[in-house]
Amino acid sequence: MMSTIDKYKNTKSGESNTCTREEINAQFYLQESKKLRQQIDILQISNRQLKGERLDSLNLNDMKQLETRLEKAIARISMTKILEEIEYLQKREIELEHDNTILRLTIAENERVQQEVDAASYHALEAYLARNALQLNIMLI
Superkingdom, according to UniProt (predicted)? Predict the structure, then answer.
């Protein structure tokens, strides 16, 4: 008989523990929800202040802290922009060096072709002058 009563008590206490666990979970989630709402409110207020809204409620120390945060943010943004500009200029330098190499090769090829044309023109001119000199000599004789 005692074992049946013990089983009943254990079963009853198990059911009450389940409710207690559910209640504990509900309490935990309510507390977490409340904390998250407070954090959201704080972040929204901070965001408004960073945008310059609702500054009249700030005291001098809060204003100085806000100013420091803004200066750090500006410095961080400026540094990011400077680094982006450096990266762009380095890429541009590589592109210009490549273009310069191509132009040097093109100039060298054009000079080589010009020298060949000049040499051919010089030989043609020599031949022409030689024929004219020969004809002049024949006429003089």
Answer: Eukaryota
- Between CA 46 and CA 20 the distance in angstroms is 39
Residues with Cβ within 8 Å of 127's Cβ and at least 6 positions away in sequence, in order, are none
Flag whether 126 is in a domain.
no
The pLDDT value given to residue 71: 93
Domain count, the chain: 1
CA separation for the pair 50, 73 (Å, rounded): 10
Domain around 16: 1-57
Would residue 18 count as lying in a domain?
Answer: yes
H or E stretch at 58 = none
pTM of the model: 0.47
Nearest-angstrom CA–CA distance, 108 and 100: 12
Q: Residue type at 118?
A: D
Residue 121 lies in a domain: no
Residue 12 lies in a domain: yes
72-111 residues labelled b (16+ CB within 10 A) or e (exposed): eeeeeeeeeeeeeeeeeeeeeeeeeeeeeeeeeeeeeeee
